[in-house]
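GDSL esterase/lipase-like protein
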Amino acid sequence: MATTSDLSIIVGLAIFLATLHTNILGVEARAFFVFGDSLVDSGNNNYLATTARADAPPYGIDYPTRLPTGRFSNGFNIPDLISQSIGGTESPLAYLSPALTGQRLLVGANFASAGVGILNDTGVQFVNIIRPFQQLEYFQQYQRRVSALVGDSEAKRLVNQALVLMTLGGNDFVNNYYLVPFSARSRQFSLPDYVRYLISEYQKILRKLYDLGARRVIVTGTGPLGCVPAELAQRSTNGQCSAELQRAAGLFNPQLTQMLLNLNSEVGGNVFIAANTQLTNNDFIHNPQAFGFVTSKVACCGQGPYNGLGLCTQLSNLCPNREVYAFWDPFHPSEKANKIIVRQILTGSLDYMNPMNLSTIIALDSLL
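Tokens:
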């Protein structure tokens, strides 16, 4: 019978071989699907009548084309960087993009939409956004399109073997519960009860995703919500993170991890992977100089205190060197910060990635 030590050696060898295969020979890229909010939206909202858009300069200033793409970033976002890590020739296109046809469907698709949350009433001020169950309906539509292209069995295999990224939750606090004083949800729920409600609703979304064939799903928690420049500008008097929003993240993230582990027990496998993005963000927010940042409080693009008020536009203050800013705009990390987040997704310890990191997933799946 194999011991724990034997299994560690086998997995370690598999990771080494998978890395070798990726770096030297290249891999046959698996499909990649993305669901969630503005942290992972690659341009779906460009095609919608909504104010939650990033399709004008200076967004995209450091993207290879130097043009805005709909990503809420100065350059690459988290899905782009993960896609590169798993051997993707290109990042999956926004599902609403007219270019997503033919063979490009086999790369995967990005269904994320800026402004959405777990709850349907989150982000109502943005009006026309793709809420989670609508994203899943588009995923079903996508599968029908792929079946027409390659047949039902091949389409099923592509989905079952795909990597999935899901990022939701932050907007349910900043664009719902704490959006205005005495918001409807804050009158309905105490914060602990609201978090429990969010987790129960999120579980329904993830169960539906599993029913639609997803078998490797990385689910990110919220970042340190009270430390983003937007919240510092509105709630901080001395540059300290908002204690109430930090409390919200501190309640939500551990319960999310536990819910994912419970779901894994229910389905009988390590389908859902919890990515502790709060811990990753905390690393560079509380010690920015260690990661090459000059500041983790001031956004590169914005206006007002900490450049944290309003939208990032051509009229905003714009830093000359995005590499030294942890935040690109009032809410979203810079490309450099995204690289730090993805590095932990790839290689992070159990504190960051539970029950395993992406490199281990790639290695184990290469043995199948």
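The beta strands are 32-36, 108-110, 163-167, 217-220, 272-275, 301-302, 317-318, 353-354.
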